Structure formats: C-alpha cells, structure tokens
Amino acid sequence: MKMRIEYLADYPDFVGTLGQWHQQQWAYLKPGEHVDKWIVELRSFCGRRQIPSAFVAVLDDQPVGSALLIAQDMDSQNDLSPWLASVFVAPECRGQQIGSSLLVRVAEEARTLAIPRLYLFTEDARSFYERLGWQVLKRTTYFDRNLVILYWDIGPQIGQG
Length: 161
What we know:
Elements: E1 4-7, H1 15-26, H2 35-44, E2 53-59, E3 62-70, E4 83-89, H3 98-112, E5 117-122, H4 126-131, E6 135-142, E7 145-153
Helix pairs in contact: 1-2
C-alpha cells in the first residue's frame, strides 16, 4: 500500500501513538511531563488549512511519522514564526523518504496559507534538512542543548534541493 500524508485531525486514533513517540523523542523539552500532556497538546494542533495543523504519514493504515505546522516552537525565539516542528519517522520506516514527504506536505500547507518562510530547530538532523533546501539561520542553546535554527524560503520548487 502507498504511503500518504494526511491531516492528523482525520486520524484521531493515531494521536496516542504519536504522543508517545514525541514524548520519547523530545522529553528533554518538557522534563517530567507525563505522556498524557503531550497527547493533549498534540490534539490541540489538529487543524486543517490553519496554524496549527498536524500531519501524519500513514502506511498500511498505521501511523509511521508526523510533522506539525505551528506558530511557535521555541519560547526564546518569539520573533520567528511559523515553525515546522515534531518531524518524526518511526525508526523501522526511516530511509524511505517519509520525512522529506512530511516536509513537502507542510510546505504545501504553508504556501496555501501565504506563508513565505518556515523555521525549525534541530540538534542532530541538520544535514537532512540542508539536503532539502533549508539554510542555517543561527546556532543557539536551548534546554542545555546545542541546536541550530534553520529556515526555508518556500518557493515554486519546494522539496527540491
């Protein structure tokens, strides 16, 4: 079956799984926070054609990845908006272009909303994003982690680069 990117709002049964994945991947951002709070927050992002919107990669009727389009992702960078956030692909599904498909879908959503630029931060996936056309804006420390903030000017050739 073909992998597809859908609004998470159309797959509410996947929120629990994605919330667990997100909590495991990014627990350092919200130390000690129970997975239920992650799930509640993820539900709050389930918009369509708006900020926030959440997307899920679906393969064989199961979630295999996610990405968010949100207004803010770093409380220390309030001047930057909107953000691509929580890009996650299940470990057993990595290397199949699911992550890049999620990025392209979020960029398409942003273009629909007349958003000219997206931001993201990463600790260890800089080269992945740069291969897709993202550029380094600056380096920063956040929650005692050395991170890089990247931006993507959304143009007619999204996903190319």
